[in-house]
Amino acid sequence: MMKKITLTLLLVVHSLLSAEKHALLVGINNYQNDIGTLKYCVSDVEAFRATLIQVVGYKPRNVHLMTDQMSGQDLPNFINILLRLENLANRIQIGDTFIFYFSGHGISTQDQSYLLALDSNTTTYRTLKRSAIPIEEVNDILSGVKAQQILTIIDACRNDPSAGRSNQDNLLSENFARGFQLEPRTDVLGQPAVSANLYACSIGERAYEWAEKKQGVFSYFMLKGLQGEAVNEDGEVTITELANYTQQKVGEWTLTYRGKKQTPWLVLKGKSNLVLAENLSRVRTKITRASTTNVDAEVEMWEMAKHSTNISDIEDFLQAFPAGELSPVAQLKLKQLKRKMKIVEDMEIAKTKPNKTRVTFSNKDKAKMEWIPSGTYLMGAGKNEIDDSMRFAKPTHKVELNGFYMDAYEVTVGQYKKFLAETGHRALPDWVSQISPTDGHPVVGVSWHDAVSYCQWVGKRLPTEAEWEYAARGGLSGKRYPWGDPAPNGSQCNYADKNANTVLTEINEEWTWSNMQVNDGYAKCAPVGRYEPNGYGLYDMGGNVSEWCADWYGKFYYKNTTSKNPLGPNSGTTRVLRGGSWPNSVKYIHVANRNDSNPDDRNSNCGFRCVLDLDID
Predict the structure, then answer these.
(1) How many CA atoms within 13 Å lie on the side-chain side of 496?
(2) What would the pLDDT profile of 292-311 be if each residue is shown by its tens digit?
(3) Residue 353 carries which DSSP code?
(4) Contact by Cβ (8 Å): 104, 115
(5) Distance of CA 183 to CAs 89, 148, 241, 321, Å?
(6) Residue 275 DSSP code
(7) Largest CA distance in the chain
(8) What is the 3-state secondary structure (H, E, C) of 544-588?
(9) pTM assigned to the model
(10) For residues 274 and 196, is the Cβ–Cβ distance under 8 A?
(11) Which domains does the chain have, with CATH numbers?
C-alpha cells in the first residue's frame, strides 16, 4: 500500500514539475450572418497572445488563436471552437494551467445563454440553438479539464448582436454569467485546484472601447496589469490582484470618459489563488493623469452638470476646470446648447391645438414642424400581412420613443436649392427637374449622405426608422396606412396609378403594376402637401417619395432590436427607406413596409424630411 501511495506522489510531483500552460483565445469581429460587426475583438485576443508568450512565458505552440481573419481549423465557427475545446481538454494534464478567452458576441434567451460563433445564425430561436455555442456546454467541457488552474475570460457584453458596438447596450445578464459554474477538481490526493471566471463587466453593465488604443478598455488594462502593473511583492500576478487592478483602472476610465460604470467582475473558486505570471518586476504606468483628488472633483462636478440644459452650469464647470480632462466634452456641450438656444430664438411659435405646438422656422429652411409626442406603439407588420414584401417587417414588437419634432412636409426643391447656394454642396442631377419640376415639389436625386449634410446645415437630423413609422401612423394603432385601413383611392396619396402607368411602361414594358382604376392626379411627383395630413399633421407619409432614415438596414433587425429609442444596426451596406413613392404599387405604401438603398444612390423617387430633438412645450 505504501508503495502505491509513494508511486502516486511521484506521479503528482512529476506532473507539477512538468506542468505546462495552455490557452485558447477566440476573437470575432466580422460575423458571417446578419449579426453586428465588432471592432477590436481580434486585436484584443492578438495582444493577449503576445503578452502570454513574451511576458508570461507561454510556449507559442500552446497558445491557440482563432479569429475570423484566419482559415481552416483556426476559423472560429461552431464546429471548430467545440472541437478545439474538447481536444485541449483531453491533452491538458494535472498541474497544467488553461485559459479560455472569448471576445465577441454573446446572447441570452429565457432558458439558455450562448456564445456566438462566426457562423451562428440568430434569425429564429431554432437557428440560434443549432448554430450558437451553449454556455452550459462550454462549462461541461471545461469542468472535465484536469488542469490545476482554469481561467475563463468573457468579453461578450459589449452591445446588442444586431447592433454592433453601438449605443444599443447588450448588458451582462445574470443568466449569462450563471452559465459558467466551474468546480475545481481534486483528483489526486486532494490536490488543491482553482478556477476563475473574469467578465469584462458586472451584471447590468456593458463593456466599452478605447478607439485611440484600438482595444476594449477591459482588455487594455487587463494586459497592462499582466505586463507588470499588477505584480505583487513576490513577483507574481494573481487573478485576484489582476482583477482588482483592472476593476480600478476600467472604473476610473469609463466614469471619466463615458460618464458610465463598468466594473470587471471576478468569480473565484478553490482553496488557493490562481497565479497567472511569476518572476516579474513591477512596472509603472506610462499614462499620466491629474491627481486623484482633482480628477475625482472634476468627475463629480461633471456628473452634476452634464445633463443640464442651462448654459451657465456648463460655463461654471469650465471656469472651475479650464484645462481639465473633461473640458473638451464640456466645450462641445456648451456649443450644442448655444446652437439650440439660437434655434429657439429664431422660432415663431403658434399654439394650434391643446397639447400640440406648431413650430415655424424663420431661419434656414423655414420648414413647418409638428410635435410628435412621446409614446409606445407596436412597430412592424402583423401576422395577417402575408405579402412577401412584408417578411422583413416582422415580428411586431413594442417600441418606446421620446417626443420629437418632424417636418410637416418632405424637403422641397426650393429648400434644397437654398442649402446648395449657402454651402456649395454638389448640385442636383440635371434630370431632377423632370421628376420634380417646381420649387414646391419634394427634392429627389439626393443620396443618404446628401440628406445628412442638409440636416446638419439646418441643425436637425434624419429620423430613425422607429421614429418614422411612429410618426407615419399618426396616432393610429395597427392600421395599414397613415389614414387607416381603406386602400388608397386617389385622394389620400400619390402612388403608381393610371397616370404613372404611361411613365413606367415607357421605361420598361413589363412594369405593369400600376392601379388603372385610380387617378391621384400625378404621373410623377406631386407638390408637397396636396393630400390630407395624418393625425399628427404630417403630409405625404405614404407615397410621393420614399424617405431616407438614419438607420442602417438589417433584414432581421426586428428579431433582436431594443425596445426604447432603437437606433438600428450599427453597421450595414444599405440605409433604410420608408413610405413608398410615386412609381410604387400599393403594398409599398403600408406604414410598416421596409425598403433600402445604397447610401450613395441618387434615386428619382427618394427624398427625405428632418426631425429635431427639442421639447419646448
Answers:
(1) 20
(2) 334 456 676 676 667 666 77
(3) E
(4) yes
(5) 15, 12, 21, 50
(6) E
(7) 103
(8) CCEEEEEEECCCCHHHCCCCECCCCCCCCCCEEEECCCCCCCHHH
(9) 0.48
(10) yes
(11) 22-277 (3.40.50.1460), 292-345 (no CATH), 354-612 (3.90.1580.10)
